Structure formats: C-alpha cells, structure tokens
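thought: user wants a sequence for this fold. calling inverse folding tool.
action: design(structure=
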C-alpha cells in the first residue's frame, strides 16, 4: 500500500511538471511577451506544489472509497431487480452530485442572461435523467452507439432552432458536469452494474455511463435556449493578481498578496464559494447518499465502512488542495497567458496553446482514474501510457483549433469543428470494437476537468478579450471545453482502429501459416 502511494506521488509530480516547465520557459525566454512578477512566480510555484500533493491524495483516496462505493451501489441495485428503486436512486444521485459540482456553479455565474438557479436546476435534472437512461441501457444490453447516435442527432437538430450564442454554452455544459468527484463514482457504478449483470468485468458495458451523464446537460440547455432567445453576453473581469493597474500585480515580492491569494481561493469570498466550501458541498451528497443506502440495503462490515470513509477523507483533503491551487495560481496565470500572448505573433499563441493543451491532460485527476480503469477492465491489453498520450495529443489539437476559432472570430463557427468531428467519431464507432467506442465517449467528459476549465478556458477567454473585447467571448471563447470533450472520441477510437488492424493482420498471418503447414503435410503424404 505504501509503495503504491509513492508510485502515485511520482505520477502526480511528473503530471504537473510539464505545465510548470512551459510557464517558466515562456516567462524567461526573451521576446515572447509574457512576464511574471516575483509575487506571481511565488504563487504559481506554491500552486504547482499543492497540485502535486492534492492530486496524489485524491488518487490514493479515490482508489479505496469512490471506486468501491460506486461498484457496491451499482451491483446492489442490479441484484435487487427492482426497476422503480433503480430509477429513483440513480435519478436522485445524478441530481444531487450535479447540483453540488463546483465547475457548474462557476459556469452558471458567468451567464447573466439566464438565472443561475434555473440553469443549475435544469442541468442537474438532465444528468439525473440520463444516468438513469445509461443504467437501463447497460441493464438491458442495448447497443451504445445506436443510443448515442440518436441523442446526438437530436442535439444537433436543436442547434438549428436556437440562437447561435447558446450553442457553445450548451456544449460546454456537458463537460463541466463530469468533474473529478463525480467521474470515479459514475465509472464505478457502470462497472458494478455490468459485473452484476454479466459476471464479467471485461465488457464494453462497463463504460458509457459518463457519456450519458454528459448528454443530459447539453440537451437541457438547448431546450432552455428555445425559451431564452436573447443573445448571451459576457462581462470580462480581469483577475486582480494580474491586473497591471492593481497593487497586487506590482513588481517585487509581496507576502501579503501571496497569503491573500490562497485565502481567497480556499475560503468563501463575495459570490465565490472557495475551495473548502465547494468541495465540502460536492462530496457531502455522495457520502450522505452512500451512507443511507448502505444502512438500508448493503450493511457492510465496520472495517470496510471505515476504510471507505477514510478514503473519502483523504480525497477530500486532496481535492481542497488541488482546487485551491488551480484557483489561486493556475487560473490567473492562464488568463494572463491568453491576454499577453494574443498581443503578439499568432504562431506563438497557437504553439503555446498546443503545448498547454497537451500538458493539461497529464494534470487532470480524473484522467488517471479513467485510464487505470481501462487497463483493469481490459486485463492490461489497453496500454495506459498509450491512452494518456493519445488524450494529450488530442487536447493539444483541440486548443489549437480553439485558438484559431478565436482569432478568426465570427467567420469560424464552433459547428464547423464539432459537426465534422462527431461525424468522424460515429463513423469510427462502426469500425472499432464496442469497448473502444464506450471508453472514447466516456473520455470526453473526463478530459474536460478542472485543469481545462480553470487554466485552459481562462487562457482562451483572455485571448478572445485581447482580440475582440467582450463581443465574442460567449460565442468564440466558450466552446473550448466542447472541442476538448470532442477530441478523445476520435483519438481513443483511432487507437481501437489501429489495434483492430493489427489483430486482423496477425490473424491473417497465422491463417496463412496454418494453410502452408497443411499444404506441406498434404504434399508429404
């Protein structure tokens, strides 16, 4: 156990290191146009250290808590064979965890045209309803790609009927609702249902539930847009840490500024919840839900229950450290990168965006959870390293496309990317084994986690503000998460296509060899 935790600590360090290296290189290379003050460097350095420790604790705790909880709930509900109970429990679970998702509150507060409580409520309803649909699909062994094709077809049909400023928001909402707290639990629930039903973990039905949890919010926001037809607006607020007119961004070192930056990120401040309250609100519904369900239906031993609760506590501390770090240091630095690099050469902005997209994947907590489960479910046949590298490359491409979309403004619609992208994704789904399609559509929601929403999205918003002011932020900066969520659908299935081609080639070679040996035996006879 101790050695495993050290391995995870090493993974966390190596995952965060590329982000730090890229930022520092940009800061110290002359002529780039990006300069951090001493105070900003100190805050970023402390944030990087907290990200390493936070990600490490979260992954260690998730292994012994949320994974176990999800599998127990999924398998228990399936064995009870009560359809009403399954529907009610999964719907309430989806609603509770989504209402508490901190990324959703951040998104809702940035859309002044729609009341935040209404947006959060509808998105939460969508997640709950589609988790039920996803669970029923697993239970009744329905084809995943057919269901996904139908719902995505409905999604793009609705896009034709609404004001175009709502499209990026709706597609982004599918990514922000599947965060680092909910993903491990939802993934494990899928495994629990599939294992209880089929008695075998190595089934494509173990995946796909996160994909359904991402569809619900998109459809709900699109339906909401049929009612709210006014153009969405955005009021850009530069972070005080990087505002050149703010005393907090003055040259030299200011210890009070450093302390205040982390306190504001940790504790409630104005309309912001702060990491402590956000993570507490996020984890509480899951823990309460599981404790009540366990007391009524599962009745675990005290030792097992203590292990689960202890794991949740470790994950809780880790996620607080992680969210504090990204809010205090990574979000303002991401915003500063976009603002300043957009004032220089386009090729530098594109190249930096590509690098940031690649390294951001390594620092997403839920990516490690998903890739570990892929390896476990496939009995090691799917390489974790290959999947992570593919996701990283895809994220880099996504950020490049997003930067170009921002640069060209109204001439480059988000639909120009997502429509061909989804057509390619569904075309690939008919050419690869089902397990790769299921994993791919789950990966979309997993990659678009807190590192992308609090570092890459501010980078895009900052760049868009430099180019166009507030005018195009809702249509061109928003939508970045949607492109991020799209690329894994293509990359993971390309891995599946490559694996299928290799298997067919090996089969052909083996068949020819057997035929040759048979012919030799006939001749000899």
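)
observation: tool returned 525 residues.
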């Amino acid at each position: 156990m101790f050695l495993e935790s050290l391995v995870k600590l090493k993974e966390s360090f190596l995952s965060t290191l590329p982000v730090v290296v890229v930022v520092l290189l940009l800061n110290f290379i002359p002529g780039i146009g990006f300069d951090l003050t001493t105070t900003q460097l100190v805050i970023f350095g402390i944030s990087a250290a907290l990200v390493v420790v936070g990600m490490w604790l979260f992954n260690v705790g998730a292994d012994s808590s949320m994974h176990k909880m999800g599998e127990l709930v999924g398998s228990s509900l399936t064995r009870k064979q009560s359809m009403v109970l399954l529907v009610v429990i999964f719907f309430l679970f989806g609603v509770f965890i989504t209402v508490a998702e901190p990324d959703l509150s951040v998104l809702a507060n940035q859309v002044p045209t729609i009341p935040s409580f209404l947006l959060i409520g509808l998105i939460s309803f969508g997640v709950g309803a589609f988790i039920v649909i996803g669970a029923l699909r697993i239970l009744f062994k329905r084809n995943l790609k057919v269901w996904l094709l139908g719902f995505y077809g409905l999604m793009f049909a609705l896009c034709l009927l609404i004001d175009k400023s709502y499209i990026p928001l709706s597609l982004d909402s599918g990514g922000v609702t599947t965060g680092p707290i909910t993903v491990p639990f939802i993934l494990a629930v899928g495994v629990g249902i599939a294992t209880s039903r089929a008695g075998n973990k190595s089934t494509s039905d173990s995946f796909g539930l996160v994909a359904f949890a991402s569809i619900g919010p998109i459809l709900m926001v699109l339906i909401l847009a049929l009612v709210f037809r006014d153009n969405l607006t955005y009021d850009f607020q530069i972070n005080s840490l990087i505002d050149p007119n703010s005393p907090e961004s003055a040259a030299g070192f200011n210890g009070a500024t450093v302390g205040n930056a982390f306190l504001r990120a940790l504790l409630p401040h104005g309309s912001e919840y702060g990491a402590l309250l956000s993570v507490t609100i996020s984890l509480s519904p899951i823990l309460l839900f599981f404790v009540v369900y366990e007391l009524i239906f599962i009745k675990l031993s005290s030792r097992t229950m203590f292990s689960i609760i202890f794991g949740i506590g470790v994950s809780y501390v880790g996620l607080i450290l992680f969210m504090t770090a990204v809010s205090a240091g990574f979000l303002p630095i991401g915003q500063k990168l976009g603002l300043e690099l957009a004032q220089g050469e386009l090729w530098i902005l594109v190249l930096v965006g590509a690098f940031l997209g690649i390294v951001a994947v390594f620092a997403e907590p839920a990516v490690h959870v998903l890739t570990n489960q892929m390896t476990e479910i496939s009995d090691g046949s799917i390489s974790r390293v290959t999947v992570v590298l593919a996701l990283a490359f895809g994220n880099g491409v996504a950020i490049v496309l997003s930067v170009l979309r921002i640069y060209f403004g109204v001439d480059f619609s988000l639909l120009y990317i997502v429509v061909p992208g989804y057509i390619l994704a569904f075309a690939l789904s008919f050419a690869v084994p089902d397990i790769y399609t299921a994993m791919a559509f789950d990966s979309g929601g997993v990659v678009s986690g807190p590192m992308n929403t609090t570092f890459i999205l501010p980078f895009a918003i900052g760049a868009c503000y430099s180019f166009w002011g507030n005018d195009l932020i809702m249509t061109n900066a928003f939508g970045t998460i949607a492109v991020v969520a799209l690329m894994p659908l293509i990359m993971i299935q390309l891995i599946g296509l490559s694996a299928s081609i290799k298997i067919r080639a090996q089969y052909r070679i083996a068949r020819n060899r057997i035929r040759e040996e048979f012919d030799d035996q006939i001749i000899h006879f």
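thought: summarizing for user.
answer: Here is the designed sequence. The mean pLDDT is 82.
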